[in-house]
TrEMBL record:
<dbReference type="InterPro" id="IPR037010">
    <property type="entry name" value="VitB12-dep_Met_synth_activ_sf"/>
</dbReference>
<dbReference type="Pfam" id="PF02965">
    <property type="entry name" value="Met_synt_B12"/>
</dbReference>
<dbReference type="GO" id="GO:0008705">
    <property type="term" value="F:methionine synthase activity"/>
</dbReference>
<dbReference type="InterPro" id="IPR004223">
    <property type="entry name" value="VitB12-dep_Met_synth_activ_dom"/>
</dbReference>
<feature type="domain" description="AdoMet activation">
    <location>
        <begin position="1"/>
        <end position="305"/>
    </location>
</feature>
<keyword id="KW-0808">Transferase</keyword>
<dbReference type="InterPro" id="IPR050554">
    <property type="entry name" value="Met_Synthase/Corrinoid"/>
</dbReference>
<dbReference type="GO" id="GO:0032259">
    <property type="term" value="P:methylation"/>
</dbReference>
<protein>
    <submittedName>
        <fullName>5-methyltetrahydrofolate--homocysteine methyltransferase</fullName>
    </submittedName>
</protein>
<dbReference type="GO" id="GO:0005829">
    <property type="term" value="C:cytosol"/>
</dbReference>
<keyword id="KW-0489">Methyltransferase</keyword>
Length: 305
């Protein structure tokens, strides 16, 4: 497959249907059952009926959730006037070499992308997974394909309502959800059109949000891709400053409401947690990353035994 690189820009109203409201309400301290208000569309009678499903003890909390959703939707309408959410992706030839990915950056030039493998013994004795398992080995002589992506809000959104703590927090929590929602919409386009490995996919948004699609989209910082410093490798591939993302010296992204990661199409690809790793893998990973053990210890502190 030839290399494909695209930059997408979405209006807020284009991505807001893809918001996973469970995580928004979680950020405000609500349990998932209260987030169900986001699925109630239509008249006030429907919302009032939803309230009656709660005990008297929980009804006030449910009312708070209802009010928060109203205010969030009002804020989305305001943001829609002036701001856009941006994504960039690249689909590249790739192969695996052990626990490394070899990704074609451009014809004749490849990028080595080291990964981590599970080490903690499992009760069910299932295989110890690494993301490289879902890409064809270089020894096969047949190139495979991988995707890389980044999504981010308009940086100016971060400074909105700084003198109004409530509205400022509302924008922050919505910004996180909008970056994720743009990623969801971008990934749908990649699967069905740009990469096209799932042209006939016909899923509802609720089905997308519970990952009914083929393939996976692990994001940097999540359990299968825990090393934040690989953002520097993704930046080499994507030139993320094209959508306004810059990296700190530790690989953290600015704007904060940004998402980066990889896309795999293998039908058997699944999410997993790397979990705890030993000093042996830390040393091996540091060598493959071209970093000192102490540098990598800082990035992988949560994963060390």
């Amino acid at each position: 497959m030839r290399q494909i690189s695209e930059q997408l820009s979405f209006a807020v109203h284009e991505v807001s249907p893809y918001i996973n409201w469970i995580y928004f309400f979680h950020a405000w301290g609500f349990q998932p059952r209260f987030a169900a208000i986001a699925n109630i569309h239509g008249c006030d009678v429907c919302r009032a009926s939803w309230l009656t499903t709660f005990s008297e003890e929980d009804r006030s909390k449910a009312s708070e959730a209802m009010q928060l959703l109203k205010e969030a939707n009002r804020m989305l309408d305001l943001l829609d006037r002036d701001y856009r959410i941006n994504s960039i992706f690249k689909i590249c030839k790739a192969n695996s070499d052990g626990d490394n990915l070899i990704i074609e950056k451009e014809p004749g030039h490849s990028l080595v992308f080291p990964l981590l493998r599970q080490q903690t013994p499992k009760r069910d004795k299932s295989p110890f997974l690494c993301l490289s398992d879902f890409i064809r080995p270089a020894a096969s002589g047949i190139p495979d394909t991988i995707g890389a992506f980044a999504s981010s809000i308009d940086a100016d959104m971060e400074g909105l309502y700084e003198k109004d703590p409530y509205k400022h927090l509302l924008v922050q929590t919505l910004s996180d959800r909008l970056a994720e929602a743009a990623t969801e919409k971008m990934h749908e386009y990649v699967r069905k059109v740009a990469w096209g490995y799932a042209k006939d996919e016909d899923l509802t948004i609720p089905e997308l949000l519970v990952e009914k699609y083929r393939g996976i989209r692990p994001a940097v910082g999540y359990p299968s891709l825990p090393d934040q410093s690989v953002n520097f490798l993704l930046d080499e591939l994507l030139e993320m400053n094209r959508i306004g993302i810059t990296l700190t010296e530790n690989g953290a992204m600015r704007p904060h409401a940004s998402v980066t990661g990889l896309m795999f199409s293998h039908p058997a690809a699944e999410y997993f947690s790397v979990g705890k790793i030993g000093e042996d893998q830390l040393e091996d990973y540091a060598r493959r990353r071209g970093k000192t053990i102490e540098e990598m210890r800082k990035f992988l502190a949560a994963n060390l035994q």
